[in-house]
């Protein structure tokens, strides 16, 4: 699989007046959280549905990246049908609560690749954006820089090819995160085009 710059993979013409659902996926360490935060800073009409996880908070995290819960709390939320999607990845549970955005805002989901298929089942018109690393070497460097232990880095890297293959099949667009500002503005340009299509469908 080539790691080229962004490309549209599947045709998408949103016609609904409902909020746009934007799904940001990619392998661990690719920078989804950083890009998502920057998108929120630059786009007043994006609302992030913050995910839950049972994994421990990393030393490099502030605690706002996820809603950190224990497994019992997560499983209780599953039983109560409170998640739009959820998945188990490397022994930890990750899930996205059913979104309740403010009126007029579009929804941004930052999730694992596994969860994207579940989102598309619920929202067939959702826009899936696959975020890629510039190279596997840089992905490994980012994983180590954020404080992941060697075993976790190895697990993440071993699962990355399969994640990327699945992500390519689900994605509407692919964006390479070679530089945060460049990648963020590329995604903003994609969103603006999609919003124009919603306003002026043809």
Account of the protein in words:
Helices cover 40% and strands 21% of the residues. It has 202 residues and is an alpha/beta fold. It has a domain at 7-49 and 104-199: 3-Layer(aba) Sandwich (Rossmann fold), CATH 3.40.50. The strands form two sheets. It has a six-stranded mixed beta sheet, with helices on both faces. Strands 5-4-7-6 form a four-stranded mixed beta sheet. Strand 6 and strand 7 (92-97) form a beta hairpin. Helix 1 crosses helix 6 (180-199) and helix 3 (113-122) packs parallel to helix 5 (150-170). It starts with 6 loop residues before the first strand and ends with a helix.
What's this model, at a glance?
This protein has 6 helices and 10 strands, in the order E-E-H-E-E-E-H-E-E-E-H-E-H-H-E-H. The chain is an alpha/beta fold and 202 residues long. The model is unreliable at 1-16 (pLDDT under 50).
Q: How many runs of DSSP E, i.e. beta strands? A: 10
Compute the gyration radius: what is it? 16 Å
Biggest β-sheet: strands ordered side by side in the sheet: 1-10-9-2-8-3
Topology as H/E string?
EEHEEEHEEEHEHHEH
Helix content class: 40-55%
Shape: globular
CATH fold call of the domain at 7-49 and 104-199: Rossmann fold
CATH superfamily of the domain at 7-49 and 104-199: P-loop containing nucleotide triphosphate hydrolases
| Mean pLDDT over all positions | 86
User: How far do the termini sit from each other?
Assistant: 33 Å
């Amino acid at each position: 699989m080539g790691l080229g710059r962004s490309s549209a993979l599947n045709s998408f013409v949103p016609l609904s007046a409902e909020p746009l659902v934007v799904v940001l996926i990619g392998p661990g360490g690719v920078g989804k959280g950083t890009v998502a935060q920057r998108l929120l800073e630059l786009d007043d009409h994006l609302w992030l549905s913050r995910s839950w996880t049972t994994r421990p908070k990393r030393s490099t995290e502030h605690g706002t990246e996820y809603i950190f819960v224990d497994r019992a709390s997560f499983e209780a939320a599953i039983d109560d049908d409170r998640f739009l999607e959820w998945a188990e990845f490397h022994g930890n549970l990750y899930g996205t609560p059913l979104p309740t955005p403010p009126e007029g805002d579009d929804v941004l989901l930052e999730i694992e690749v596994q969860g994207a298929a579940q989102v598309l089942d619920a929202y067939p018109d959702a826009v899936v954006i696959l975020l890629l690393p510039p190279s596997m070497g840089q992905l490994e460097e980012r994983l180590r820089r954020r404080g992941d232990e060697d075993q976790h880095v190895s697990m993440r890297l071993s699962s990355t090819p399969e994640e990327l293959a699945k992500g390519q099949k689900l994605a509407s667009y692919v964006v390479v995160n070679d530089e945060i500002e460049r990648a963020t503005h590329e995604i903003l340009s994609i969103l603006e085009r999609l919003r124009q299509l919603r306003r002026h469908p043809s």
